[in-house]
Amino acid sequence: MLKRTLTGILIIAVVAGFVALRMVHTAFFDAFVFALMIAAGFEMIRAKKKAGKVLFERLIILFPIPVAAGYIFVQNLAVSLLIEVLSIVVLFVASVGIELIINAVNRKSGAPAPENDKLLAITKDTMGVIIYPLAVISTMFILNHFGYNIGYVMIITMFAITMTTDTFAYLFGMLFGRRQNSARFAPEISPKKSMAGFYAGIAGGLIVSVVCWLLFYHYNLFDSGLVASLSTSSSLILFTVTGIVASLATQFGDLLASAVKRQADLKDYSNLLPGHGGVMDRIDGEMFSSAVVATMFALFLLI
Question: Which residues of 134-148 are buried (b: 16+ CB within 10 A; e: fewer)?
């Protein structure tokens, strides 16, 4: 428990440090997201291989490079998103081409067909890892480059909702979810999770989103012109809906990561973070919460 607590404090300090360094330059937070993508890529490759999947590993690890470069050096969100989409398309075409060549060579040499000899099976699994978790994690680049001040609003809101959701779900799950007759939430994937923790997580996400609304709209912390341009009712709807949906997304991300680990018969994605597992074990909810925050703010502020 002590090891887990100390590691948790260190994780919070590192995250807070990179968020603070954003005041110097947005590239610091970009570097943080890039590191998350690389670490998560290696961990997911390990999990998929443990589950018997065959992957084009180099294509997976290559993906974060043009994506990060696009956001860091282009400094235009629309163009950076286009670069990311084109990177996915190029890697997909490359994966298909490589797999077709491998299959043709195997047929010509008379080599036995692999166990997963389904149409483009390797490409399917490779692109699956590129999309989840890598492309989902990359939505944190969007938060960083949405705008300087609004970027702080979105990043802090995302982390606040995720951390509060996890904390409320854990605490209330411990208090009320251990009862013998308490309802379980997705018991096939994560038997310890209870409906009490699930609902408490949503409540926590809602509460902290209202707190964020007070800070960033009512008190105009970070002086975000985009948020301030909304009416009181619209801004409150933005934050409360974001809080609820991001909380749901956080818990979905946790379940999805657990499902992958269960398929691979793994307890943790790695032992990189003592007491916490790997990077994927820590950001399984943040990446989906980030996607929700980016989508919701774009809908309210740009459309």
Answer: bbbbbbbbbbbbbbe
273 — phi, psi (to 5°)? -115, 100
Cα 145 from Cα 84, distance rounded (Å): 14
Residue 157 is encoded by which pair of tokens?
């809101």
Q: Check if the beta carbon of residue 285 is closer than 8 Å to that of residue 253.
A: yes
3-state percent helix, strand, coil for the chain, nearest multiple of 5: 75, 0, 20
Please count the residues of the chain. Answer: 303
Domain that holds residue 249: 2-302
CA nearest 142: which of 289, 252, 278?
289
- Quick check: 145 and 26 in contact, CB under 8 A? yes
pLDDT reading at 184 higher than 80:
no
Q: Which two tokens stand for residue 242?
A: 């974001």
DSSP 272: S
Instruction: Please return the burial class of 167, using the count of CB atoms within 10 Å of its CB with bins 0-12, 13-18 and 19+.
Output: middle
Average pLDDT estimate for 72-83: 94
Tokens 């607590």 correspond to what residue? 5
pLDDT of residue 177: 64
CA distances to 56, 128, 174, 193 from 294, in Å: 30, 21, 32, 27
The answer, as to whether pTM is greater than 0.85, is: yes
Average pLDDT along the chain: 92
DSSP state letter for 113: P
Amino acid at 38: I
CA 234 to chain CA centroid, Å, is 27
Closest CA to 145 of 300, 298, 287: 298
Count: domains in the chain: 1
Instruction: Provide the greatest CA pair distance for the chain.
Output: 71
Q: Look up tokens 């709807």; give the residue.
A: 237
115 pLDDT above the threshold of 90: no
